[in-house]
Amino acid sequence: xxxxxxxxVDGKNLWRFLLYGWLPIPHSVIPPKRPRYLWSELSIAPYDxxxxxxxxxxxxxxxxxxRGLEGWxxxxxxxxxxxxxxxxxxxxxxxxxxxxxEKVRAFCLTFGKxxxxxxxxxxxxxxxxxxxxKEMTPRDSIGLTEEAVLCMRAPIHSTEVxxxxxxxxxxxxxxxxxxxxxxxxxxxxxxxxxxxxxxxxRTETKLLWRCQSYYVWLQLLQSQKYVAVRFPFLDTKLIAFxxxxxxxxxxxxxxxxxxxxxxxxxxxxxxxxxxxxxxxxGTKAGFTPILEDWFERGYDDWCKENIVPRxxxxxxxxxxxxxxxxxxxxxxxxxxxxxxxALNTFYDLLDRGEFNLTDSGSDEDRRACxxxxxxxxxxxxxxxx
Length: 385
Hints:
It is built from 18 helices and 7 strands. By secondary structure, the protein is of the alpha/beta class. The protein has one domain (10-369): HUPs (Rossmann fold, 3-Layer(aba) Sandwich), CATH 3.40.50.620. Strands 3-2-1-4-5 form a 5-stranded parallel beta sheet, with helices on both faces. A two-stranded antiparallel ribbon has the order 6-7.
């Protein structure tokens, strides 16, 4: 088994990761190349208005939830990571309906100023599900940096999944469903609402591939030591159905997930506040802290201690300082700053021989997360990374 060193770092991919925060599959910062964790191609089921009905979207989601539970024992407790937005609220509601509220546990994080726990409490009470909630602090995140970098094999800036995975496991819940993916398939991002009709399908496709390349990768690898996580909203049959829906069912103007909210309002007893949360694109934070607040509470000092990276010479140090200050968004600049600060941890782990040339997650782990891989819908369209 080969122990990786600094010589094994792909410099081009490292700079791309520091700048953008993600790499398209199969690229990686250090070997090996990354697999396609859930699917290698995407399909679309052409829309048939004659077979559509009010509630069909929820029925399709119920079916994907059931497929996502396959292989898990009927007596197992299932966790749901709950932000309280419409995505995780819908998942919690359907889970409590499908398996019974007594077998479901909800987990929620707060982050100081980023505290949307009232949404989580409201929907958990509505579904009669026990809610486990905890605040995550900058100090918690700093303490998880080494473990997160080791999991991700890259100078990662995000540790929230690792924190909530440990929280779930500490509670005795080892199987979790994530609400990841509904933004991508139901027009939930600003990129969706900005795209004109000719660009919408391609934008949707790019966002789905980014989701697998980054968000799925992050949740699988940061959770695998503590919990098994599955993604019912990224079931290939559900993706195919939703991609075939008219754009007006997804977003119009700045309004997002239009059909989902309509069906939830008419066919469930979910609290209205949760259904409406994030209706306007970009207004619901979810599982992300306000980094400006976190920097004021300790992250800034940690970053100053770790920037510039010890492993870099003078030219590279100048470049990473430039990367930290690029862009109009303060949030984006702070995220890049955290990735740069994590470089010291990344290189320290390399120097200690902690990275081996082994695949990130076994084939068995990936098969366990491959929900709906037997998709048989037609009109396959692929997006090249």
